[in-house]
Specification:
Elements lengths: L24 E3 L5 E3 L3 H26 L7 H21 L15 H15 L9 E2 L4 H24 L6 H25 L4 E2 L6 H4 L2
Antiparallel strand pairs: 1-2, 3-4
């Protein structure tokens, strides 16, 4: 059997509350206590938020499968992204000096996989002549929520990297993932036959008055 790239989780969650964080602090993987509003905590907290919304989008995909079976591989893609986001959280929750060689992390392979998937999805889409508004379908809107949260995580990571050592693969991954969510939002509308909502500046109240 081939050796696994990363160690399997070694945790036991038998107590959910510990009262250890009641004073507004939490622990990093290396045991260091930091405030809960520490920049590192904020960054992987937003990654966790992104994971939750990715799960919401995956649930919507699975509900659409009876009428749109072509979406089945995409459900698997979103599940993989959720695992990758947890791997990213593992890195963000650990100081560089405490990273184990086989600890879960983001590598160049994750961004490269996303690039291939972006290119593949984009092949079936028409060229854009305007910006896209979220909301062509519920799934489209959920993927746009994922895109915007991903951009927020990316901004926080850029800020964090100014003061702390961060692996460049992590930033590349978030940048590519936000692009993927955008393309996927267009692609799912294409698959389920829903029209895109394009930005029309003159659809605003001021434009409609003329």
């Amino acid at each position: 059997m081939a050796e696994k790239t990363f160690n399997e989780p070694r945790i036991t969650l038998n107590r959910i509350y510990t009262r250890a964080g009641d004073a507004g602090e939490t622990r990093l993987v290396g045991g260091q206590r930091v405030p809960k509003d520490d920049a590192r905590i904020e960054c992987f907290g937003v990654v966790d938020e992104l994971n939750a919304f990715t799960g919401l989008a995956r649930t919507t995909v699975e509900q659409l499968l009876p009428e749109a079976p072509a979406l089945r591989p995409f459900a698997d893609t979103l599940k993989r992204v959720q695992h990758e986001l947890f791997n990213l959280g593992s890195t963000l929750a650990t100081l560089p000096e405490d990273m184990h060689p086989k600890q879960a992390r983001i590598t160049a392979a994750e961004a490269q996989r996303l690039e291939r998937e972006i290119d593949q999805a984009n092949e079936s889409l028409a060229n854009l002549r305007s910006f896209v508004l979220p909301g062509g379908s519920r799934l489209d809107a959920e993927l746009h929520v994922c895109r915007t949260i991903c951009r927020r995580a990316e901004r926080l990571l850029v800020s964090l990297a100014r003061s702390q050592s961060m692996p460049p693969e992590a930033l590349t991954y978030l940048n590519r993932l936000s692009d993927a969510f955008f393309v996927w939002s267009r692609w799912v509308n294409h698959v389920i036959g829903r029209p895109e909502t394009l930005w029309e500046p003159n659809a605003a109240a001021s434009g409609a008055d003329h």
